[in-house]
Amino acid sequence: MTESTETLIEIKNLTFSRGSRKIFDDITLSIPKGKITAIMGPSGSGKTTLLKLIAGQLKPDSGKVTVEGLNVHQLSRKKIYQLRRKMGMLFQSGALLTDLNVFDNVAFPLREHTKLPEEMLEALVLMKLQAVGLRGAKHLMPSELSGGMSRRVALARGIALDPEMIFYDEPFVGQDPITKGVLVKLIKTLNDSLDLTSVMVSHDVDEVMMIADYICVVSEGKLIAQGTKEEMLKESTGYVNQFIKGLPDGPVPFHFPTVSYVEDLTSSNKSSLL
Amino acid sequence: MSLLVNKVQNLLQSLGKGFLSNVEAFGRGSLFMWSLLLAIPSVFFRFDLLLKQIYVAGVLSLPIILMAGLFIGMVLSLQGYTILVKFSAEEAVGTMTALSLLREIGPVVGGLLFAGRAGSALTAEIGLMRSTEQISALEMMAVDPLKFVYAPRFLAMIIALPLLVLIFNALGVFGGYLVSVSWLGVDSGAFWSQMSSEVDWREDVVNGMIKSVAFGFLIAIVALFQGVNAIPTSEGVSNATTRTVVHASLGILGLDFVLTSVMFT
Ligand SMILES: Nc1ncnc2c1ncn2[C@@H]1O[C@H](COP(=O)(O)OP(=O)(O)OP(=O)(O)O)[C@@H](O)[C@H]1O
Ligand SMILES: [Mg+2]
Predict the structure, then answer these.
(1) How many CB atoms are closer than 10 A to CB B101?
(2) pLDDT digits (tens, 9 = 90+) for A54-97
(3) With contacts defined as CB-CB under 8 Å, which chain A residues touch B144?
(4) Taking burial as the number of CB atoms within 10 A of a residue's CB, which of A143, A152, B81, B257 is the most buried?
(5) Cα gap B219→B222, rounded to integer Å
(6) Which CATH class is domain A7-273?
(7) Per residue in B182-210, pLDDT tens?
(8) Ligand 1 in contact with A152 (CB < 6 A)?
């Protein structure tokens, strides 16, 4: 990157495995302050895992993650919870608290961390719900919401405390074209008006291209490319091109790593013949 | 020959692995319990959470405790009466019912029912909260699940069980009264006066309460630990729920023997 912008999140030589499978192998990347950074990569490549590593919910095997100059994985329990107050996270599944209705879910972080009077709290919550188009759903329980609606409620909850950085895990999945458009605008407006740092995991190339300032592509445990949107668009070969154009064949594998297809078929043939 | 060596090697390996994973589980269990105990004081600043959990664990277990207490008291006095009447000591049936309830049956049966009703529910709840990433989401909202979820539930169970056992015992004595006095015609005055002169506050009532606190502690630890360590799938959660009931029940029976031998000999 050629920028002079400040770095907010820095990942250095990060290695992380699940069992014997290496999810990340020596990844180094940095996320600039005040911009929208998109992390792209095939399904199962570890994008969600990367967000959890940044937030300190998972511990890396080696390497370090620094957020605002603090090494996330060496912070005390108290310090990491202080840091997380500045973070908002939209989970892939929504992860709403199932015993609270929509309104209370969005109000939850406000009630836990502030002592706002009830009228002000209500105004704030309704504002956030209005932004995601779900003010009318405030009395519904999470079990009465569709997947896309849950995620929008989760988004409203994620921005309730006006965090300094926000992580979106697949914000556009399961949304209709209109909602997608609104969400794209919302993410952009939030980022610009509140001076947020946004990290967005997404497969939706079109939406990403509309709003992302920076793009990182991960695959097979490696960081394949990193740069501004313009730099990425210029790239006409290899992984990035394949990913951005959505071509099935190319350097990015579509299949989960395993033995060769032929080998698998022949070995199962053998055992069924025996 | 080498086949045999191989087999022995494999056996040793799996033994070692099993041992290590048990040691690891024990270590994780102790660490979890330690951090849980450290989080307990925070509950006193969040009475709303505690009250809600006492409602969930205690009040919702009331129906089964009431029914069970009544029937067990009735059966106890019926059996007691048929034996005692042979020695013309049927007036002691009240004492017998009350003592067996207070010392053993109340805490043990109450504990077993509580493990099945509230312990299993707790494990399933925590397991599902984890599998639906609610615990993760709490962590991300800078709300410590240890203080917000685990500690209030833990404390609520320890508080709820002794209260439920008290109610169980009272209902049991009432059931005994119904059967022996109202039905079988034991003298009501004798029933009560013998009971109140024979039952000792410190020896019987307090010891029974100590037992039920210990069982509450045991059930809470087992249920929480199983919930937190459940594999976050539907099968994993259902297995963990079963394990909670089995481990907690066996634990209660074993611990009861230990406590009885310390308290009543
Ligand atoms: N709890 C877990 N235990 C073991 N392996 C896991 C676990 N969670 C994820 N994995 C593995 O880690 C890899 C990365 O998972 P992750 O959820 O980060 O993928 P992702 O890039 O977010 O995929 P998607 O785009 O489908 O959401 C997956 O291949 C999966 O096999
Ligand atoms: Mg994911």
Answers:
(1) 29
(2) 999 999 999 989 999 899 999 988 899 999 999 999 988 889 99
(3) 77, 81
(4) A152
(5) 5
(6) alpha beta
(7) 999 899 999 999 999 999 888 899 999 99
(8) no
